[in-house]
Amino acid sequence: MVQRPGSYSNNPSMSDQKPNSLPTSGAKNDQQPVLGSESNIPSQFIWPDHEKPCFDAPELKIPIIDMAVLSSGDPLAVSKAAELVNEACKKHGFFMVSNHGIDSGLADNAHEYMDKFFGLQLSEKQKVQRKAGEQYGYMNSYVGRYASKMPWKETLSFRYCPDVQDIVVEYLVNKMGEDFRQFGRIYQEYCEGMGKLSLGIMELIGISLGLDDQAFFRDFFQENDSILRLNLYPPCKNPDLVLGIGPHSDPNSLTILHQDLVGGLQVLTDENWHSVTPVPGTLVVNIGDTFMALSNGIYKSCLHRVVVNNQTERKSLAFFLSPKVDKHVTPPASLVTSENPRMYPDFTWVTLRDFTLKRYRPDMQTLDAFAKWVQEQEQEPNNKTLA
Fold first, then answer.
1. Number of Cβ within a 10 Å radius of residue 182
2. Which residues pair with 319 in a beta bridge?
3. Is there a catalytic annotation at residue 361?
4. Edge-to-edge, what's the strand order for the sheet holding 283-287?
5. C-alpha torsion 208→211→217→220, nearest 10
6. Where is this region: Disordered (predicted)?
């Protein structure tokens, strides 16, 4: 049975090879895809009236943080950047970064390879089909996971751990065959760049929170168990009925998004939806639920969604930073005070991850529902769920 929001019961190096070398198929799809071009939208994709998209959302004003300040040797510039991060993360958890170190050619290749993959026959894509209860693989509209309010998107997700050599390459070769080795190398290198960037962002976040040990969060995520997700949002003839993905907060710690220039990302703040306008050369960063707990609620994991249009597909690459699965999420002692007492119980990332995969569809109340569930589990004698 598919979980409804509000419930938490137990339910279920780059070579010279060019991007166009990815194996292609003679036909676009050999089976009818879930996301067709017909005007009649299947009912499971239609959202309730109170959750339907708006296309005139005002622009969200978020700071653009120059990551070069960390190596500039200019303490005033670092302090100013940290102040901007602090202000944004206390309000809605979103900011952008520039001079982030991700090579534009690598990002372009990553987007081109995305085109090639999603253009394969459906039977080819299903070789890497994501299974129930897993985070990795291909999904078309989250079929089999949700029964209603389904997202208008296709995704391909990989696991990335910096201590496992060529993890992305080997995953794709094992699932799709030797022809996908170069495909894997592109995303392996992209993940490595994102991993390095995420540690720099965590260092800046530590500074912004005023920690005595400014490298605390950088060290906390030095070993991590993260995900890269390729997102394709096809055009829809009735975009006013569907959502690319519905309102949710990210369960992980930090999300770093590379998006094209189509637009569609919206953030809920001050009780209204605001659009995040793409800025060339920047990446969008947002706080996730795990880091909200790690900051003892000081930094916010905010609701966001994606709207689609009727003409142009939207593409993005989302890197989801998370700690090692068995690492305990406990805020630094300096962030727990009499004015800001402890907000969430200790937990491991694997526990929250599995909660959102098997028990609860991520929404605006994920962390509160999870905290309540953890407390209930702890009260049950001989319960090994949280071990």
1. 20
2. 228, 256
3. no
4. 64-66, 94-98, 283-287, 254-259, 314-321, 226-233, 154-160, 137-140
5. -170
6. 1-42
Which of these, 113, 241, 237, 231, lies nearest to 181 by C-alpha position?
A: 113
- Cα 8–323–281 angle (5° rounding)? 105
In the sheet with 265-269, reading across from the earlier edge strand, the strands are 245-248, 304-306, 265-269, 272-275
Whose CA is closest to 286, among 307, 315, 316, 310? 316
CA distances from 9 to 2, 61, 74, 134 (A): 11, 38, 51, 19
In the numeric block, which tokens belong to residue 207? 């500074």
> Residue 171 in contact with residue 66, Cβ under 8 Å?
no
User: What's the token pair of residue 106?
Assistant: 């690598």
User: Mind listing the pLDDT tens digit for each residue in 59-74?
Assistant: 999 999 999 999 998 9
Residue that is written with structure tokens 């509000």 in the block? 6
Domains of the chain: 54-329 (2.60.120.330)
Asked whether the beta carbons of 65 and 204 are under 8 A apart, the reply is yes
HSE of 49 in the Cβ direction (CA atoms, 13 Å)? 0
144: left (phi over 0), alpha (psi -120 to 50) or beta: left
Task: Out of 314, 342, 353, 359, pick the active-site residue.
Answer: 314
Contact in structure between 263 and 277 (CB atoms under 8 Å): yes
Q: Which pLDDT value is given to residue 12?
A: 31
- Number of Cβ within 10 Å of residue 322's Cβ equals 26
* Helices vs strands, H then E, count in the chain: 9, 14
Spatial CA neighbour of 6 closest among 365, 386, 370:
365
Chain-wide mean pLDDT for the chain? 87
What pLDDT digit, counting tens, does each position of 15-24 carry?
334 433 444 4
> What is the rounded distance in angstroms from the CA atom of residue 322 to the CA atom of residue 350?
10
- DSSP assignment string, 291-349: HHHHTTTSS----EEE---SS--EEEEEEEE-B-TT-EE---GGG--SSS---S--EEH
Could you give the CA distance from residue 279 to residue 276 in angstroms, rounded to a whole number? 9
Give the relative orientation of helices 167-176 and 181-208 as an angle to the nearest 10 degrees.
140
pTM score, two decimals?
Answer: 0.88
Assign 363 to helix, strand or coil: coil
- Per-residue model confidence (pLDDT) at position 5: 32
Which letter does DSSP use for residue 257 in this model? E
pLDDT, one tens digit per residue, over 223-258 is: 999 999 999 999 999 999 999 999 999 999 999 999
